[in-house]
User: What shape does this take?
Amino acid sequence: MELIVFQKGFNYSQDGRGNRLIYHLQGCNMRCPWCSNPEGMHAENPLCSAKKPLMRYAVGEIVREARSCKAMFFDGGGVTFTGGEPTLQYEALREALLALKEAGFNTAVECNATHPRLSELFPMIDQLIMDFKHWNDEKHRQITGTGNNIVKSNLAQAFKLHGNVLVRTVLVHGINDTKEDAERFCDFYTRHDTSRASFEFLSYHEYGKEKWKQCGYAYTVKNGFVQQSTVNGFEKIYRENGLNVIRT
Assistant: This one.
């Protein structure tokens, strides 16, 4: 079984604990207009792949590469699968996670929490990083192309069953950056036991804007930047609701 990868490399602490080998898996079922990796949205885009050809890795190759990099996994590091959306390659991802765990490696998955069988992967994931884009189902659908009911269900399952969950929200002006938004996110979280979960906010940026053009896509976000005071305000409201807010 193979994993289709559009990018890989090392990163420290941004995609899981410690120094990690990151595989960006191709394909995504959302179309977030601020995405910094638009080349990973479709199964294959000729304009994008001409500039950066896709890579294919058998599960055994992933494990061998992890073994060869073992000395680099300091501060609790390991292997992270992100995207795109890694769970679109569900069976190959499952096989890779299982093989890495059997080989003794720390694993992390960063996902958009939309796969209906996500919870089956929990035992193979040491750190689960989940995105929550918007608390309102209709707004979530308008922004990303998918509703958030399955996202909420997977978040609830993760809070209940997984011991190391990080929930991230990208704050974008005019989309999800108001005081009401912060309070409505908290309304959902506080219905659950989040004692083993952490929360983090990422500010909108335009790092992927040029790549959208290179891939032949229209970049539609205008005036999406948020002030640091907005991030601070979200953090304050979350903490007042008993949520553990971190910055990685």
Summary: The mean pLDDT is 96. Helices lie at 46-51, 59-68, 90-102, 137-144, 149-161, 179-189, 209-214, 228-240. The CA atoms of residues 168 and 200 lie 5 Å apart. The chain is about 30% helix and 20% strand.
